[in-house]
Amino acid sequence: MGDFAFDDERVGVVLGSGMGGLDTICEQTEELRANGPRSVSSLFIPKAIINTTAGVISMRFGLHGMCLAVVTACSTGTDAIGQAMYAVREGRMDAVLVGGAESVMVDLAVQGFHQMQAVTESTDPRRASIPFDKDRSGFVMGEGAAFMMIESEAHAKKRGAKILGEVAGYAQTCDAYHITAPQPEGRYAARAMELAILDAGLEKNEIGYVNAHGTSTPLNDVSESAAIELCFGEHARNLLVSSTKSMTGHMLGAAGAFEAVITAMAVAQGIAPPTIGLETEGEGCNLDYVKGKARKMDTRYGISNSFGFGGHNSCVVLGKY
Q1: pLDDT tens, 259-281?
Q2: Is 64 a catalytic residue?
Q3: Was domain 11-319 assigned CATH 3.40.47.10?
């Protein structure tokens, strides 16, 4: 925060990760098998558990406010933002550094998702991550991280921050349907969107853009499309909907944070990012998915969707400042 004298007991960290230090777990398992118990690193546990990252960030910046780690599979990043938003809105924190991080490009994770038939087997990069396309066959794993500072407007102005947007509303529901598959009609995903819009104090027709979870899996894309139609009704035809996973792959626990940043910037700059690779919409995918190229848009609010194994449905509304 530069030279600004902030209250370190009122600034916190909320971080999410879906799987944490899986590479460390794999590495140390091999070490144990090859060289015995005494070869296991004393840093194994701190490097494996998800909350360590939040703790290290707090130590790095001397932040003594809330320090929380969130784990809700692919909804993680969005849920982290929701928890941070609540803390600031309720006056418990002045500011929260919030985000998601994921780095699990290891054989165990890749093969685990492959065994579930969740990842694509396409060898053509142009036809691999193709959300909403009739030929979609699974997601492409990605890695990454994204963070934002959520703070009260007064606090941001006091420290001279460039305000990029507004976190207007958030909600979370659960399908309570299946351990990995979404509820087919998108009933509770739609309810999460409705509740997030309600939390923001908006009408549905004030939303102009949806950053879809859009994983490029056969089940997710059709159920999410159904959820958007169920939530917005006739207004769904006016929405610009896109899946930026077509460009980034699926960053699992980091996806929601990364896509919230994209949504905030898309609304601020009036540009809807595209769904690249989409050629022909699949059955049940009946919306405007900003096919192929970015498009100008004029809306004050967008919504970012994240859905995770276990039935988690998380949505955050981002607004232009």
Answers
A1: 999 999 999 999 999 999 999 99
A2: no
A3: yes
